[in-house]
Each structure stands twice: as C-alpha cells, then as structure tokens.
Specification:
By secondary structure, the protein is mainly alpha-helical. The chain has one domain. 63% of the residues lie in helices and 0% in strands. The chain is globular, with a radius of gyration of 22 Å.
Length: 432
C-alpha cells in the first residue's frame, strides 16, 4: 500500500500499540452480561440460533451486524466473552483505520512540512520533519485517544451497539478508499478503489442506518483535500457521486421514509409517530444534547448508559432536571446551545473559505474545518428534528468523536510548537 512505503516499520508499531491498548483497556469487560436491547436483539432472537437462517438475517434490518451475532452464537452460544471479544476487535480495527485516515489526511493537507505556518524557523522545521514524521505522530496520538477514550465505552461494551462500531468500520473504510483512490497514479487501481466506496457504503448502511451521511463526508473530503474546492475536478468523479446519490435516494425512500425516521432499534422508537416528543421539542433538545456531547469529550465524567436527559419545551426555557439526575454541566436554555453550535459551524465555514485563499496556513484551516463538519454531519441523523424516544446516547458519538480527537491533537501540536519555538528564541537571545 502506498501509505506504508518507506515507513512500514513505524506504521506496524503504531497499529500494534493501538490494538494492544484497546484490548488492555477493555479486557475487564469481557464478562459483562447482556443488557437492555441485547435481550430482544440477541438472547431472544431465535433466527440467530441457526446458520441456515443467514440469508433471511442478511436481508433483515441491520442484516450485516445481525449476521455477525449469528456467527457469534454458532461459535459460543450465549457466552458473552465471544461477543465482547468481537466488539473489542472491531473497535481496535477502527482505531487502526482512524490512524491511517488521519495520517493520509495530515500528510496530504499541505501544512505538515512546517514551511507555511509562520513557525518555519530551522529548529521548528527540523522538529516537525524529523525522523518520526509530523503526520505520523499527530495521527497516532489522535487515533490512540479515539481507541481508549471513555466515551467509547458504550459503543464497545454494550454488545448490541456493535451496530454502531461495525457501521463505523465500513464508513471509515469507504473514506479511506476514496482518499487512496484520489492519490493513485494507475487508472485501473483508481477505478477499483472508487468501486469499493459504494460497496462499503452499502455494508455500512445495513450495519446501521446512521452511515447514510457518507456521501456528504466523501464530498466534503474531496472539497477540502483532493480538489481543494475546484468544482471542475470534482466533476471528473461524477460516476462515483452518481452511484452514491442513487444509493442515498434508495436508502431514504425504501428504508427511512416508511418508518418516519432513523430508527435506533425498532420502528416504534423513532420517527414522526413518536408521541412523547414533537419534532420541534426534539430539535431544540438536541441543541443541549450536542453541547453535552462536547463536554463529555472534554471531561468524560458522570457517564450513563440510560440518561434521564430533560426534554426542552421552549427555546428560551431552562429545561427541568428530574430529581437525582446528575449531569456534567447545568443545562442552559436551548437558545444558548444553539448559539454555540452555530458559532462552531460558522467557524468551520470561515476556515474553509480562508483555507482556499490562504497559501501559508490553508491546509491547516481546511483540515480543522473538515473535522468540525465531520462531527456535525455524522451526528445529524440522530440530532435533527426526527424524534427518537431516547434523546441522547453516548454510542452516537462514536464515529463523530474522530473529528474532536483530530482537532484536539492538532491544537495540542500547535501549542507544543509555539512553546518550543518561544523557548528556543529566548535561549538564542540569551546566548547572543
């Protein structure tokens, strides 16, 4: 693979560390029992108990994930250890995929050389282009954070939420295929890689419907890193976008529209038929939910599998907490969270526009813009106006969190560079 040329040993070591760290962190969860939706989806699901049912399982809702549960049952019955090992393995693979994607993105973004960021003095440039390589270091750090951050606990240890992690695996793989295809010099190889994108899209969607947003992320990746906003270049990839558009329309019309929304597990749990919350109330509640998601990424405390999160009834009303509810922050009126969300998205748009005209820091601006929008695009199916009975679940942050970890690693890197540069300046001034 092109991304491993000349750096194979380093990449192997990083991937091994990510896998090892993932299994070490989650090894104490292998005996955790089935909970909540594990029962109807796995324990009491008689279709899973015979491999002769695989064709029927595959064409059912979230069939790809359900097939993996059937295979788990065929190997070990209802022994939870096997299910947890597979969940952890999927998460470890996702950690590796995040590393590869971030490495390709950072190394191809045009700002990793240290010559265009205003900190191009020789000592800093030498540090950034040293033996380990800037892109590899920052990508490895962000991917390791993704792998071991406590926010991933629910997606990994809640067995049925293999749906989330497996869908994310195919989602990441699709973006990787697109990034690799864009950099491929041989036409046959490029076509083969592009062909893998819609296949991964299908597998991801039928693992869990939240993968529906993939075409938007592919287009955004193209705008930020491949075509860099050149519409004519994007148009050369019209066959891929045509296929993705057809698949998107099919998924929406055949799967999402009949049930009235993005189901979390069943048709009764999501859609416009939910009577406990209106689309407007769900929408304004999600402003606070998104703000709370961000606080969980920054400070993962008071985590909960089943939140008693207050539903907002008015844009300017402070939501009322039930007695005994403990949250990280006091929830503001939804309008405050809306302002925060709009400000963050506006920053992403501003950085993208600046990235097109700014020669020196354009790559950095586009990268930060991409990962901000990645976060919101991936959350959009469950944080929109389509009501879902459970307004918040930590596993919904699983793939979206990649955006946060990428930006966090980049900002920490810039801070380290700034401090290092200032110290060297002081030291040079003292010596002279």
């Amino acid at each position: 693979m092109d991304w491993m040329k000349g750096e194979r040993r380093y990449h192997y070591i990083v991937c091994l560390i990510i896998v090892a760290a993932t299994f070490i962190v989650y090894s104490n969860t292998f005996h955790a029992a089935f909970h909540f939706d594990d029962s109807p989806q796995i324990v009491e699901n008689h279709r899973l108990k015979s491999l002769s049912n695989l064709p029927e399982i595959l064409v059912s809702g979230r069939g790809v994930t359900m097939v993996t549960f059937a295979l788990n049952y065929a190997v070990g019955g209802l022994n939870v250890v096997g299910y947890h090992i597979v969940n952890t393995l999927i998460h470890a693979v996702n950690g590796v995929l995040v590393y590869i994607l971030l490495y390709l993105t950072f190394s191809g973004s045009g700002f990793a050389s240290g010559s265009e960021d205003g900190l191009s003095a020789p000592p800093v440039k030498a540090w950034r282009t040293g033996r380990a390589g800037w892109s590899r270091r920052v990508a490895a750090f962000a991917a390791l954070l993704f792998a071991v951050h406590p926010i991933q606990t629910e997606a990994v240890t809640y067995i049925v939420q293999r749906m989330e992690s497996l869908s994310s695996l195919f989602y990441l793989f699709a973006v990787l295929l697109f990034a690799s295809a864009a950099g491929a010099s041989e036409r046959a190889k490029r076509v083969a890689l592009y062909a893998g994108v819609p296949i991964s899209y299908i597998l991801g969607f039928y693992s869990k419907e939240v993968a529906v947003t993939l075409p938007a992320v592919i287009l955004l990746y193209d705008l930020c890193f491949v075509s860099k906003g050149r519409v004519r270049e994007i148009a050369t990839r019209w066959p891929l976008y045509a296929v993705l558009s057809v698949l998107l329309a099919f998924f929406v019309v055949r799967t999402l529209v009949p049930s009235g929304g993005f189901n979390d597990l069943s048709e009764a749990s999501a859609g416009f038929g939910v009577k406990s919350i209106t689309p407007w109330e769900y929408l304004i509640t999600q402003f606070n939910v998104i703000l709370y998601y961000i606080t969980l990424l920054i400070f993962p405390a008071n985590q909960n599998l089943d939140y008693d999160f207050p539903v907002s009834r008015g844009l300017f009303e402070v939501p009322r907490l039930s007695e005994g509810t403990v949250l990280n922050i006091p929830l503001p009126p939804p309008v405050v969270s809306l302002i925060v969300v709009v400000a963050i998205i506006s920053l992403a748009v501003y950085l993208f526009i600046r990235g097109r005209s700014e020669r020196e820091r354009g790559g950095l601006y586009r990268t930060v813009s991409f990962f901000i929008l990645w976060f919101f695009i991936i959350l959009s199916p469950t944080s929109s106006f389509i009501p879902i009975i459970d307004v918040i679940f930590e596993h919904r942050l699983y793939l979206a969190s990649v955006g946060y970890f990428a930006i966090f690693a980049l900002l920490l890197d810039r801070l380290f560079l700034y401090v290092t540069f200032k110290r060297r300046l002081v030291r040079n001034a003292d010596s002279s």
